[in-house]
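Co-fold these.
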Amino acid sequence: MSMLHLVNKSPFEKNSLKVAISCALNKSAILMIEDGVYGAVSDAKHSDMVKTAMNKSDFYVLKEDTQARGIDESKIIDGIQLVDYAGFVELSTKYDKIQSWV
Amino acid sequence: MATKKFMYVNRKAPYGTVYALESLEVVLIGAAFEQDVSVAFMDDGVYQLVKGQKTDGIGMKNFSPTYAALGDYEVTKIYVDKDSMKERNLSLDDLQHLVWEDEDEDYAEKNSIKLVSRDELAKILDEQDVLLNF
Amino acid sequence: MKFSIQINEGPYQHQSSDTAYQFTKAALEAGHEIFRVFFYHDAVNVATRLAIPPQDDRNITKLWQELAEQHKLDLVVCIAAAQRRGLLDEAEAKRQGKDANNIATGFRISGLGQLIEAGIQADRLIVFGD
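Predicted complex below.
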């Protein structure tokens, strides 16, 4: 079994990213979308938490949402992969269920 | 068609927003589909189960008694996140006592609520086929 | 693969109906099937035919309508959530003695059972919400 965790909340506002990380088992993935993409920014308050979690889970961020918010690719934590909507769809097929931390 | 494992994941407090109520409505309807259903309460979602809710003063319908009926709908697996309870200074005594009757054991009354650690909850989530998030 | 989509938030207020739209479009372009899109909570407001967003903004209702028409999508609006929020189709308006209806073409109003069925029938159900 494998799970894709969707996080759409800014980590500065809600605990969704933290909770997703706490529920992510090995071989799971976390995809940040909408305001969740702020969790992918390097050298910010939550970057260390994300980097530690990257030892266990694969991290992705939705490119269109980072672009919309003026987040330059260079500002994204190394190792977080950028995906577009097609990549989002592909991830949804690759993992056998999706937990949306709304 | 094979039975699927459905889990309703509730993370929001009642009344402040409509999610708790409209999630409960789905759970009740879903019960008729004879799937393997369970419900999880975590984060502010644990507040949904707190006993002693009185809503006269805010003019909204008190839907908390409905949780006690879940057992009759054969919704018998209710997982409550221990960490979320602890963070909020809540114990099992603060929650409604939810039970179901086990017809295989002469209708013995059994507790529906199971307190689970975050790691246990993560594993339970992973066992599901369909996750409905509210 | 067969997807079902659940949307929980109101259009314009929240990005969820936009994200769900982009996801659905990308899934269809990749050759996947969308079993059903279920509009719940305030997302039922996507189905009003009376919304007039500014000309320079996207029209979320129309985007879904067009996608539905192209791909024969099943766009289902939860009846309980819709009635609370004043969204009625012609039959329901008549039944409730209301003088108007406001459901856009391409959407249909039905019960919550349709959401459960969407979860049963699809390989993946994805929730877009707040």
